[in-house]
């Protein structure tokens, strides 16, 4: 009888944990997808230093706005965003990708990874646009990614 009770408790715990883990993964996929969708809906918006709205974005303003619309609060600057989330060695859509003027410097630019080597960002030269991590300008400045 005790073995039945223990096995029932163990199975119930496993099922509960399994369902909640699936729920968390689905929730993360949902807000990442939503943030990407919001960012893409702002393609072509001009760059504006300090900009945090569809009238003009800087890089961290775009990321903060996009994730905010998806229900996730992020800090205002790329350097502060770099302290959030967990390091991502295998990039997934929705990860934040960071860039700095040198490997020792704080990140000064951030974008949202889209998959297939592409990310969306607000750059001073092109406004909100999609580019690649292999872009000759961005590649040497890449310092890492965070999964939010």
Order of helical and strand elements = HEEHHEEEEEE
How many domains would you count in the coordinates?
Answer: 1
Largest sheet: 6 strands, antiparallel
The helix-and-strand class reads alpha+beta
Protein name: Peptidase P60
InterPro entries: NLP_P60_dom, Papain-like_cys_pep_sf, Peptidase_C40
Keywords: Hydrolase, Protease, Signal, Thiol protease
Family: Belongs to the peptidase C40 family.
Short description:
Keywords: Hydrolase, Protease, Signal, Thiol protease. By secondary structure, this protein is an alpha+beta fold.
Topology of this protein?
Elements: H1 2-40, E1 52-53, E2 56-57, H2 59-69, H3 78-81, E3 86-87, E4 96-99, E5 109-115, E6 118-123, E7 127-132, E8 142-147
Antiparallel strand pairs: 1-2, 3-8, 4-5, 4-8, 5-6, 6-7
Helix pairs in contact: 1-2
Task: Summarize the structure in words.
This protein has 148 residues and is α+β, with helices and mostly antiparallel strands. It has one domain (2-147): endopeptidase domain like (from Nostoc punctiforme) (endopeptidase fold (from Nostoc punctiforme), Alpha-Beta Complex), CATH 3.90.1720. Helix content is 36%, strand content 24%. The protein has helices spanning 2-40, 59-69, 78-81; strands at 52-53, 56-57, 86-87, 96-99, 109-115, 118-123, 127-132, 142-147. Helix 1 crosses helix 2 (59-69). The longest helix is centred in the first third of the chain and has 39 residues, at 2-40. Mean pLDDT is 86; it is low at 1-24. One of its GO terms (biological process) is proteolysis. Pfam families: NLPC_P60. Belongs to the peptidase C40 family.
């Amino acid at each position: 009888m005790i073995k039945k009770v223990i096995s029932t408790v163990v199975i119930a715990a496993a099922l509960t944990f399994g369902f909640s883990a699936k729920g968390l993964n689905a929730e993360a996929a949902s807000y990442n997808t939503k943030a990407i969708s919001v960012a893409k809906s702002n393609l072509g918006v001009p760059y504006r230093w300090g900009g945090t709205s569809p009238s003009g974005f800087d890089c961290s303003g775009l990321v903060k706005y996009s994730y905010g619309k998806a229900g996730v609060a992020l800090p205002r600057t790329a350097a502060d965003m770099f302290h959030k989330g967990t390091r991502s060695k295998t990039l997934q859509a929705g990860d934040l990708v960071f860039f700095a003027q040198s490997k020792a410097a704080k990140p000064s630019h951030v974008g949202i990874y889209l998959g297939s080597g592409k990310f969306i960002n607000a750059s001073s030269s092109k406004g909100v646009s999609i580019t690649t991590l292999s872009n000759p300008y961005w590649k040497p400045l890449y310092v890492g990614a965070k999964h939010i």
